[in-house]
């Protein structure tokens, strides 16, 4: 089976950005909760609590509403602050073990990124790890509207369009660490089919970041327990 493109999530998939995201979230929330340091939400008190909350809620909007107590209007404003605060915090997240090798080994296939992080922030991190040349499309939070964020497939569609690949009978792979990433990929597949394309989207869960897809209502097609599993899974798909 030929794979036309591999699309990646960023946070929790390519890099372990939990510690940075906790600090950025705190700075964003201070705009709405002035005494945040004295009333720190449980989700921000440790890496473990942050990850638990992140996987508990469907998307970042639910996280900000139920874990941090923001109103819908405040959440809209917080979304606008995310990219500037990400760029302001120059801390570089760790790339997952051997991920640079995996990305390089897959360089014969076009690769892109669909994320709710800031596209410039993503690029800066990729450049630091010398892997930016392997990604030909990066779609971040600011590249689509608030109403078209994951699991709406718009980011996926834009990323594929930028990669300039023919659809038709194409097979695309999406790799993410959250149930919403799997839903995101399947929503894209449904959209393509509604437009008359026989496009298949295969979803891989990045479980090396700590998620448990066996508990998800929408299951991925494959699960990678190690970063190197991704390369093996891609080879399995290619040889089907």
UniProtKB/TrEMBL annotation:
Keywords: Hydrolase. InterPro entries: HAD-like_hydrolase_sf, HAD-like_sf, HAD_2, HAD_sf, PGP-like_dom2. GO terms for molecular function: inorganic diphosphate phosphatase activity. It comes from Terrisporobacter mayombei. The keyword Hydrolase applies. It is an enzyme of class 3 (hydrolase). This is Pyrophosphatase PpaX. The keyword Magnesium does not apply. It holds the Pfam family HAD_2. Its EC number is 3.6.1.1.
